[in-house]
Fold this protein.
Amino acid sequence: MTIASGTSGTCTWSISDAGALTVAPTNGSSGYLLRGFISMYGSDLPWRNYREQITSAAFSGTIRIYTKGLSSSATETGDASNLFNACSELANVSGIGSLRGLKRTYCLFNGCSKLSALDLSSLDLSAVESAEYMFSGCAALSRVTFGSNTRLPYNYDNASGSGFVSSGKSCRNTSNGFIVTTDRAFSELTAAERAGTWTRGVNASFSVTAQRTTGDTADEDGKDVTISVIWATDASTTTRTLKVYKKLASSASYPSSASKTVTLSGNSGNETVTISDIGDSAYDFKVEFYDGTNTFVAFPSVQSNIRLIAIDRSGHVEVLGEQCYPLFVWDSVNGSDTNPESYSGTYPVSPCFVYDKGTNGLYYCTDN
């Protein structure tokens, strides 16, 4: 007996009366699922109307994911977004490694509130470009195994991640003892550091901030960086080590040697580490706190202190992404012999920027 069945692309799917979803290539070997161009909340998926009846999912063979627009031919997109979105009764997934070439895992398991464990070690996630909310709403999910080819990027534009390290759900890799407290930290780990079985809901107290400083004073123009760490551990060991690695934001990886290493003691504390004279460029930092058993990891950053100027389409000059001033055009060579830099009259709006076409100079002008 089946609740529903059908075909999608060159694959066959069915849902048994017990709620078991099976997906396999029709030829028994390889095939593709076909999705529509518009897939709001997975509405284009053939089992979407039965999502609340699905209790398990099993894949077999080799399955790729194609998308077909209203007037275009089907092309491979690797779009697995919303595949199980709102499958609130889903408790088991097997054979997921059959899915190949994935590039989007947005909301893949979003709302799967009965999932308690996932084995993704056979799933190739190395080419994923969008993974926001992949695990959001998975309240019961306590254990996930990732393979060495896992990439779950963090979206810095809207400050959203996969939801794996959700609020109050710090995660520990039982294979290497790494602990992360944010989605961003998880995404910044190397593939080797992510590989293994992770447990969610770990009690961890570890927070890190970084800011530019001059001496002991916060200064957005400063060439030093002060990293502040608040930590607490119940580890019975006495070894406590704090390491700070730094790299240019434009660099792909961190060096193997730490910029600073500090030996700590006790079960809690506040520690500040200053990296002196790093210059004006933007930097990323990797902060590791080893308590003798586990390694807590965080990735703070500081922006460049170089003043950036841009002119928007409205003719305003933007400084530091915060302040916008009107831009006026001046020609001291052909139209006026008055230098805007020393002009003491009243501009239409003050302060403002004046571009001198005659000298190709940009001036910041006030009335004084």
Q: What stands out?
A: Residues 206-302 form a domain with the Immunoglobulin-like fold (CATH 2.60.40.10). Residues 130 and 139 are 22 Å apart (CA to CA).
